[in-house]
Amino acid sequence: MPFLTALLPAPRFLTPVLLALIVLAPLLAAEHTVRLDGPVFRVSGGPARCEDFAVSVDAPGEIPALNGTCAAEAGGLSFRPKYPLQPGLRYRAVYRGAVSVFEIPKPVVAPSTVVDRVYPSSATIPENILKFYLHFSAPMNRGEAYRHLRLLDGSGAPVALPFLEIDQELWDREARRLTVLFDPGRIKRGLVPNEEVGLPIRAGGKYTLVIDAGWQDAAGLPLKQEFRKAFRAVESDRIPPDPKTWTLTAPAAGRREPLALEFPEPMDHALLLGLIEVTSRAGRPIEGSVDVDREEMRWRFTPAEPWKPGEYAIQVGRTIEDRAGNTIGRPFDVDVFERVEERISRETVPVHFTVR
Questions:
Q1: Which domain holds residue 348?
Q2: Is residue 20 a part of any domain in this protein?
Q3: Domains in the chain: how many in total?
Q4: Is 165 part of a structural domain of the chain?
Q5: Does residue 267 lie within any of the structural domains?
Q6: Which residues does 115 contact at the CB level (< 8 Å), separation at least 6?
């Protein structure tokens, strides 16, 4: 019995010790502090073990820990994630049950995207214009164009439904150029919308194309500023482009001076860049660069190498258009009123010149 009595106090003695350890465990973990030092998480406050530390995205549910490199260092440890931390996300760092949350703020970025140019660039535009080209300085967000475009008349009132609003917006590959079509049903004579509603713009009227600053670019930022293009409408253009009326200025041999082709009226800017090619007499393409100026009334080609003496040709795609959609030998609404006098069977129309 004395032996047993000597043993009985042991449980009464151990109980407060165990309770003390339970109470002190979080405090021991709390002695270590976690901070974010640039791209690296650091645990300080004494020796620390990598197996006791984990970082994950702070989100509901089971989120896997980030991969990275952990290393013990004097007074703690460091953990460098394998991939950069993402702005706008919160991260949860846990060391021995103690949780620290860090939020990576998004950088403050001022809007910088602007409307570079709008074509046609002229201040007068035929009332049967077919399209506008909007050029932006950076890629844009798709699917919201018609919420940010307005056409105002001379009094500042919106023109009702001037554009053909289609689900599949007509962007170039980089989402920096948008083609905005006027409703062709209102432009083409003989169609019901043309007869009942009429042209979107009328000769003699003054108009303003407005692109508001709320339009977001691909980064989710609004435009830097609103854009306005004022213009005056003139009579309809239903005369097809005629290569015989174009003026060609041939360059001299041995130089890289531009070859120039001038038109009596403005042409479609995008098609001038894509539907004209310079070839040798044998049909071999000549490498070089193209620019368009003088309100789309001049096309210029600068060769990559100096011109060599000989015969050349400018191959013009027969589907090239003026501002009203008229193509070589064919007015836009020919099937209703006009009769084609000349049938163009070739895909291209050559304009020959000689370099001397």
A1: 243-355
A2: no
A3: 3
A4: yes
A5: yes
A6: 134, 135, 136, 137, 211, 223, 227
CA–CA dist 322, 239 (Å, integer): 9
Strand order in the sheet with 33-37: 33-37, 40-44, 76-81, 68-73
- What is the rounded distance in angstroms from the CA atom of residue 219 to the CA atom of residue 109? 10
* Per-residue H/E/C for 128-147: CCCEEEEEECCCECCCCHHH
Write b or e for each residue in 17-51: b if 16 or more Cβ atoms lie within 10 A of its Cβ, otherwise e: eeeeeeeeeeeeeeebebebeeeebbbbeeebeee
Q: Which of 335, 256, 241 is nearest to 300 (CA)?
A: 256
What sign results for the dihedral spanned by CA atoms 225, 230, 236, 242? negative
CB 328 within 8 Å of CB 134: no
Q: What is the pTM of this model?
A: 0.71
pLDDT of residue 279: 97
Cβ–Cβ < 8 Å for 284, 278 = no
Q: What does the alpha-carbon distance between residue 282 and residue 275 come to, in Å, rounded to a whole number?
A: 19
3-class DSSP assignment, residue 309: coil
pLDDT beneath 70: ranges in the chain? 1-30, 195, 334-346
Residue 343 half-sphere exposure, CB side, CA atoms within 13 Å?
Answer: 1
Out of 66, 84, 108, a domain closes at: 108
pLDDT computed for residue 346 by the predictor: 53
Same domain, 217 and 254: no
Where does a domain end: 209, 234, 259?
A: 234
Same domain assignment for residues 217 and 280: no
Q: Please spell the DSSP secondary structure of 63-88, one letter per residue.
A: -PPPPEEEEEETTEEEEEESSPPPTT
What is d(CA 178, CA 171) in angstroms, rounded to the nearest whole number?
A: 5
